[in-house]
Design a protein that fits this description.
356 residues; Neuraminidase; 2 domains; 5-stranded mixed sheet; 22 strands; globular; disordered C terminus
Length: 356
Amino acid sequence: MRFFLGIIIFIFSFETTFAKINPRTGPNCHIVNSAFSKNDGKNYKIINDSLLTSASVPEAVIFKNRTLLYYVNGDFDNHSIFVSEVSQDGKSTSVIGPIKLNGKIIKDAVDPDLIINSEGKLRLFFYVGLFTKPVIGKKPNKIYSAISGDGINFIIEGPVVSLDGGTDPTVIQLTNGSLLLAIPQAEKLTIQLYSSSDGKVFSKLSTLKGGIPELTLNKKGNPELLYQEAQGFVRFTSLDGGKSWEKINKNVLTGYPVGAASPSVIRISKKERQMFFFTVKDNCTTPPTAYLEDKDALKKLADKSRGKPLLGDGVKPPAGGTAKGKPPLGDGVKPPAGGTAQGKPPLGDGVKLRKK
């Protein structure tokens, strides 16, 4: 997910063909909704428009006969991946708590996506950003994986993909046992797809224009991809394992709320599916320092990187130098009277030439 307010938080900026989300709103402004489909995902109807508040990037999985909903907690002091259990009717949740990665709650770990591996364990894919510390410059984002037997305590396996601007991974296991991974790049408005035969080494497969994706399988076992556009959640399908895609639905959500994003889908039965996604609370904003551990970090970073003024941290150049006039050419320093300055500013600072 994605903020770009001097620090990276979950903010997404889309062109007119994609859903508009206010670039000043973060997870504290997000509300998780749930919707239900009775026709194999062709159409969904919202059943709860406030399933979780101050929560973002939902991901649902049925594990050990429980529907678990993972999400990013938007509370300023509890920013990390949390998990709740969803009721059988999909209309309520009970919070279990934050997950642990290698025994620790990692506040910079976000954007969860889960599958069940061949051993019956949960495999978590997630993105590690820099939300608690300010960021300068762009670096490739790493997508990690981790394993858990109880859905709460995870052991990190390591990074699986590194991608510039990549966030919000989504993964499915195809009928041939291979994995299909999709990662959006918000700034480029693209979705990069990868394939892996062993779940460890992923190779680039194809690229698709779109927003935050969700991968699922249809009743025939072919991969489907869901993401948001301006008119709603659109659905694509692939007949060649993710190499090429065809749009089959313009909008699958009845009463699609403007700004809805980050869908997650689970199959309840042959024809029934449940979808989770987030919307943005009206008139809500996120302060640039909301998730920083040091609330003065941005100011300190700015002072350190820029100096005061441009030449340094309040340092004045020597009077005998070449500075002429006032900042930014100099810091109020006047050139010596014997120099070449003539007349008044800007050529000089009221300095007259010496008489010969």
